[in-house]
Amino acid sequence: MNSQTPLTPNAIVQMASAYYESATLFAAIESGVFGLVQEAGGATAGEIAARGHLSVRGTRLLLDACAALGLLIKDGERYVNSPAAASTLVPGAPHDLTRAIRYNRDVYPAWGRLPEFVRTGRPVEPPALHLGEDAERTRRFVLAMHGRALGIGRAVVPMLDLAGCRHLLDLAGGPGTYAVLMAQANPGLSCTVLDLPPVVEVAKELIAHAGMSDRVRTLPGDYHTTPFPGNMDAVTIFGALHQESPDAIRAILARAYAALRPGGRVFILDLMTDATHTQPVFSALFAVNMALTTDHGWVFSDEEILGWLTEAGFRNCAILPVPPPMPHGLASAQKTKT
């Protein structure tokens, strides 16, 4: 039973115009507004326009919209970043989310084609677009996943029981960010990141930049078909299974089980829903986002992933909630010791 508060007409109107806010945020990031404001220590619309080679009129309207949303603070004619914007929307800030938000911007046009998906049941853009077909889009996608993983990983890595683990396989490991964070937190651990060749090309740069190339290596391939190295102490699958069909998930978990030594552990981090597939709201909406851009995209329920792990032969299956802001769950399980 859905216990949500009933919608009001006003809430429906707000829902219809919610994209005004996201479009404002995307434009401000694309125009470099938050970085320009930070560099100036606060400035007028004219000063920001001059620094960014922007129109004064367009800049003023955008800055006022940002101030209305709480992204900027307006004092007279001067604008400064709000504390939240200063910590997350200035490039290089302690909790920089700009790369992660650019992923939302890249899929923004696809959402306008949602009626087409409803008619056909097929993604409205080629899934390969951000996985190698378009080099620049792929690079933005991998960097976006890097930015997102940095934020989520700081909360997730301390939740992982990697005691005694020496060899870890990170399936569909994308930018290698989680592998780097896990290796940094566990000095005796070496990680192998398996992902598509165009993705690991970017990952190698990020891993080298973190100074972890000696303990985090990449394996170009496809986790559907590439043989997994064996005798692993742990396998991680973070933010990947929501693009797979139930049968594909079963096959991947079976292969992960085979790659583990007896007593080895698997950890799955992903957005999940409840059994109704309607809560949390973000997860239900993200299922649509995945369907718009991948062949089998959706979001599975917590009950479903526990069932698939059990089918694959795992025991001690459990799910822990990950701290906000994203409604992720962390599933863990163990291969039988004999």
Explain this structure to me?
The chain is α/β, with parallel strands linked by helices. The chain folds into two domains: 9-91, Winged helix-like DNA-binding domain superfamily/Winged helix DNA-binding domain (Arc Repressor Mutant, subunit A, Orthogonal Bundle), CATH 1.10.10; 111-334, Rossmann fold (3-Layer(aba) Sandwich), CATH 3.40.50. 46% of the residues lie in helices and 17% in strands. It has 14 helices and ten strands. The chain has helices spanning 9-16, 19-30, 33-40, 45-52, 56-68, 83-88, 98-111, 114-120, 135-156, 177-185, 197-209, 246-259, 281-293, 302-311, and strands at residues 43-44, 72-75, 78-81, 167-171, 190-195, 216-220, 232-238, 260-271, 315-321, 328-334. The strands form two sheets. Strands 6-5-4-7-8-10-9 form a seven-stranded mixed β-sheet, sandwiched between helices. A three-stranded antiparallel β-sheet has the order 1-3-2. The radius of gyration is 22 Å and the shape is globular. The model has no long low-confidence stretch (mean pLDDT 93).
